[in-house]
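FORM 12-B: Structure-to-Sequence Request
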């Protein structure tokens, strides 16, 4: 051990069934590609004012603290509609709830207007999904669903040709996310530092990890998310090399060719940034090895520029 390389690492993330209980992540199912991962203990030091008979203070005493983990992820889909991206555990542990539409939802509209379409069935439909008109009046238009009232879906931008009762459509299979305030989860984070020999690794593990996410969308560049949070630190261990990681084949694409609307106003910009503004706290726990319980989101204040 001891001859580790910065890029010779593997990061795994998996949502926990019970917060703080190891989710048993594997390289075959839970690997996440990311940049500049940081997994470090937040162990503090305790100073004393004991009189020593000299001017020198006694050495500080190691204290407790959380496990800190952060990583930058280049945003990309899974490559298959209705399948979550590999960085889904980070989103969930940062307070986002996923809505899954496993397969295209097809049907024939019963009516349409300039910016709406009345669906035959809205099961699994939510804001942010994509709808495509596939036949009849106004076929071949692609729009984003921005609102839903029973069966009436609002879209952006308005239709070029207004659909009617002859229009067929498909709401495309997808995994969409929105901030949540209930049923929040935590994740187990594994950070393997591999030795150059390839035989063994140092495993740094944070359990009960919760965090915040800051997104950056630069025009002509790669959209990214910076995930930062904390949980329960576990003592690093010398383990066998876990094997080659399996990653999703889909690669990021440059952020361009998009029809951007901010509050229904067509908008141009050089770069869009927004932060979910989570406040994360790991409460004290005297029964834990390092005195800290799982991480938890206590407040959210979304901001951006």
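FORM 12-B RESPONSE
SEQUENCE OUT:
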């Amino acid at each position: 051990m001891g001859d580790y390389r910065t890029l010779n690492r593997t990061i795994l993330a998996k949502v926990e069934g019970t917060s703080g209980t190891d989710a048993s992540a594997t390289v075959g199912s839970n690997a996440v590609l990311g940049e500049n991962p940081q997994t470090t203990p937040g162990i503090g030091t305790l100073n004393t004012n004991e009189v020593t008979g000299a001017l020198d203070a006694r050495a500080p005493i190691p204290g407790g603290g959380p496990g800190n983990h952060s990583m930058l992820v280049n945003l990309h889909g899974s490559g298959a509609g209705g399948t979550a991206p590999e960085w889904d555990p980070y989103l969930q542990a940062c307070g986002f709830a996923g809505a899954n539409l496993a397969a295209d939802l097809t049907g024939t509209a019963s009516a349409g207007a300039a910016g709406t379409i009345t669906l035959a069935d809205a099961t699994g439909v939510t804001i942010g999904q994509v709808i495509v008109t596939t036949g009849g009046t106004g076929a071949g238009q692609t729009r984003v669903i921005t609102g839903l009232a029973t069966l009436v879906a609002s879209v952006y931008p308005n239709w070029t040709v207004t659909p009617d009762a002859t229009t067929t459509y498909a709401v495309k299979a997808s995994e969409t996310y929105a901030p949540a305030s209930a049923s929040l989860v935590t994740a187990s984070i594994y950070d393997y530092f591999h030795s150059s020999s390839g035989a063994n690794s140092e495993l740094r593990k944070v359990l009960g990890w919760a965090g915040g996410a800051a997104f950056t969308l630069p025009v002509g560049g790669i959209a990214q998310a910076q995930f930062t949070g904390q949980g329960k630190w576990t003592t690093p261990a010398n383990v066998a090399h876990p094997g080659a990681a399996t990653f999703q084949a889909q690669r990021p694409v440059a952020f361009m060719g998009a029809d951007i609307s901010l509050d229904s106003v067509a908008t141009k910009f050089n770069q869009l940034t927004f932060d979910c503004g989570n406040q994360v706290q790991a409460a004290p726990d005297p029964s834990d090895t390092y005195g800290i319980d799982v991480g938890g989101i206590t407040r959210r204040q979304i901001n951006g520029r």
